[in-house]
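Figure-free illustration: sequence to structure, shown twice.
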Amino acid sequence: MNSQTGHGISTALTAAERKREKQNKLKQLVTTSLKRGKLNITNTNVNPTDLSWIETEGSTGAHASMLMLKLGDILSGNSRFGYLLDMHVNLASQNPESKEAVRAMSSNSKIGSLEVFRRRMTNFPVGNNSVSTPVYEVYDKDEVEEFVIKSQSDVGTATDAIIASSKNSMAEMFEHNPDHGSLQKTIIIKDYDLFERHDTGNYEYVIELLMEDGIYAFLKEKTEQLSKAIRSFSEYVREAEQPYLSPEQSNYYN
C-alpha cells in the first residue's frame, strides 16, 4: 500500500525488527505441526492390518497389535522447545554432539500414563479424509469407547522402556525391544477380551497419554551443569584475585 501511494519502503531492518523477526521464526518452528493439524503420533506409513495378528499359543488367545509411536513428532509437535529437537535431528548425521543431544532428549522422555480404549469401526471405508482418501468411520457414535488397559509409572524411574509393562484380565501391554535413545517406539498390545468376546467386526484403538517433556528435562540438566560450572569458575576467580605471598615475604612482616 505504501508503494502505491508514492511512499518508499525501506529494506533496512532495525535491531528491534530483526529481533522480532527472529522471535517470529522461532515461534513458527514451535507451532508449525500444530497449525497444520497433521500431527500423527503413530507411524501411518504401514497398513494397520500388517501390524496386527492372532496369537493362539497357550491357554488364552489374543488379538495382538503393534503400536508404532513417533516419539520425535510427539515432542516436536507438543513441546515449546520442539524446534531444538528438529534442529539437532537435522544435524545428527554430521555432528556427534547433536546426535548425543537427540538420544538424551529421547531417553529423558517417559510416558507416565498410557490408556488404551477400543471402539468399533465400519466394516468398509465409507468416509473420506481431508485428501479424499477412503477411511473407516465409527460404527456407532452413541457407543462409548471401551477401556482396555492402562500403563502408569513414575516418570523419574530409570529404565530403557518408555512405558511400564502392564497386564489385566482384558489385555497385556509392553514395549518391544526398548531403546531409550530411539525416536521410534514400538508398543505391543495383546487384547484377550477382543479375542474371547467378539467374533466379527472391525476395531481400532484410541490412546491417551501423559508424557514428560524430554527436551525440557535435557535443557534443565544442561542449565544445572552450566550453573555448577559458573560457581566453580567464580570460586577460582576469587582465589585468583587474592595476592600471593611467598614464605620469605610473609616472614618479612613478622
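We now fold a second protein in the same way, so the two outputs can be compared directly.
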Amino acid sequence: MRPMKTSSVVKGSGGAAAGAALVLSLTACPNGNIVRPEDPSYADAVGGQSTPVIEGHGEPLVVDWRPDHRGDLEVAMREGVAVVSYTKEGMRLLKGCHANGKYGFLGMTLKEQVISLEDENEIRANLPLSGVGIAGKLGGELRQGTVLNIAMALVGKHRTTNQEVPRDALEGRCDGATHFVSGATVGAFVLKTAARGEASTAAEVFSVGASAETSSAKNVMNKDGDIASCRKASPDEASPPDGCTALIRLELESIAPVAAKTHTPAGKTSWAPNPCPAGMVLSAGKCAVPSAQRPHQCDPGDVADCSAQCDRGQPESCVNLGFAHERGQGAPKDLPRASQLYAKACELGSALGCHNAGYLLNEGEGMTHDPAKAVGLFEKACLGGEARGCNSLGAALFVGSGIPQDPARAGKLFQRACSGGEPAGCTNLGTLLLTGTLGDRNPLLATSLFERACQGRDLSGCTSLASAFESGSGVQADLGRAANLYESSCESGYAYACYSLSVLATLGKGTAKDPSRARSLLERACQAKEVMACATLRVVHGQQVSVDPREVELYRATYEKTCNAGDPVDCTNLGILLSATG
C-alpha cells in the first residue's frame, strides 16, 4: 500500500383548487413515474410542448413529485446508484434499474431561498417530471402575472463517489436509461403559486404552507418538511434531522456508452458546469433564458461572458473565469489573478470558490503560500457543502499545515469528504484505518472505502484496492484483479501502480512473467519520482539512481505499521527501502 503523503492527500486532490390538486393528479399512473397517455403522446396531449432535454450534467428540481414517488427514489438510492430516463417526454425514475455504489450525506450551513418560475419554459425546464402538465394548467394564469414559487431550506446533500456509470454496469430493467443520480440536495420545501413581484422570504412561504386557513394556503401545490426542523441541523451531523429530509434537487450525470480504459487524474481545482438545457442558463437558482436584467452563471470556457457575469456578482462565473486563468484556457495563465477571482467567488458565497482559493494559497506554483489562510478557506468550503474542502482541511490537519496536527479530527473530515462524494476522502480515511492511525486497524472497512474511492476514479484508491487484493487484506486475495487494477491506474499515470505492477510481472503473479516489462515499468515509475521504483532499481538491478531520504522516511513509517500487522507485500517493500539507504 502506498503511504499517505502530503501530495497524495488530495487537497482539492448542482383556479386555486385545481392548482392545489395538480401535483397529485399529474403523476397518478400505474408505473408511478410520469404521465404517459397511450394515444396521443404526452407531448401532443399538452399542446405539442415537450420537456427540454439535458444531455450531460443536470440539476433538475423534484419538488413536484408525489410523496410515494419521492419514496421510490429514496428506496432506489438506498439500494444502489439510482438511474433515470430523461427525454423530451419528461424524467422518470427507473425503479428496476441501478448501478453498483452507495450514497453518503454531507451536511452544510443552512441555506434558505425562494425560486420563482415565471413562465411555461422555466416550469418545463426546471420540473422535468410534470412541468409540461403544470405549465399547461397554469398557462393562462402565467400570462396574467402568476408565478410558481419554490421556497427551500437546504441542509446538505446525498452524494455517491461514482464519477462515471457505463451502460454495461447497469443492472436490472434499464431500457431508456439516460442518466444516473450522482447526488441529491435535501431539506424542506413549499411549492405554491403567487402574484408576480410579490416579495416573500422562504420563512413567509413556509408559514403559508403550514396554514390551512388563509386564502394563500389554497395556492400551495406541494410541500414536504419543516423549516423549523431544518434550522436545528448541524453541518457536522451524519444525517439530516427528522422533518428536514425531503429530496429537493437532483444532480444527474449521463450514462457513458462504454467504460473508459484510463482515467485522467482529478484536478485539485475545478469549475462550475452549466446544468441547464441548451439555450438556457442558471440564474437566480433556476434554468432560464438569458436576460440582461439579471446575472447568470456563464458556460465554462466562455471567458467574455464569465468576465461580464463575474463583474455583475455571479459567484460561479468568477470561479469559471478564475479556472480559465489558472489553466491558461481561453485566457492568459495568471495564478495570482485566478486566486483573486476564486477569493471573490468565495466572498460571494461559492463554496467551490473557497476551496479553489485555498488550494492556490496552499499549493499554487510561483505564489506566496499561506497555509493558515488556506485552512480558513477550506473550512468555509466544507461548511458550504464542498466535499473537497473537507478533504483538504483534513489533509492540513493530518500533516499540521497551517494548523496544529490532529489526526483524529482529520479522520472525521475525511469521513465527511467521503460521505460527500469526494473519492480522495475515502482513500485517505481508508489509509488511516488500515495503518491503525485512528486506533485498531480495520482492513475490512479500509478495503470497502478503497472500493468507493475507485468507483470515483481516484487512482490512489484504485491502487490501494489492488494492494488489498494482492495481499488479501480485508478481502479474498485475487492476483488477477490486483494486476488489472494496477495496470489501469498505471496507464492513467499513477506511478506507484506501475511499480506494483512491475513486482507482479517480475514474479508472474496475476499476469504473465515478463522481466523486460517489469524493468520498463520500474524505470517509468522512477522517472515519475516514485521512491519505491527508484529503490528497487538501485537495490535489485544495481542501477545508480537517487533515492530521496525524506520520501524513504515517510514510506518507512507506514510500511513498519503494515508489516508488523502481517502484510507480506509491505514487509518486502520495507526491506527494499532500508537496503536502498543502508
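Summary for the second example: The first helix runs from residue 16 to 26.
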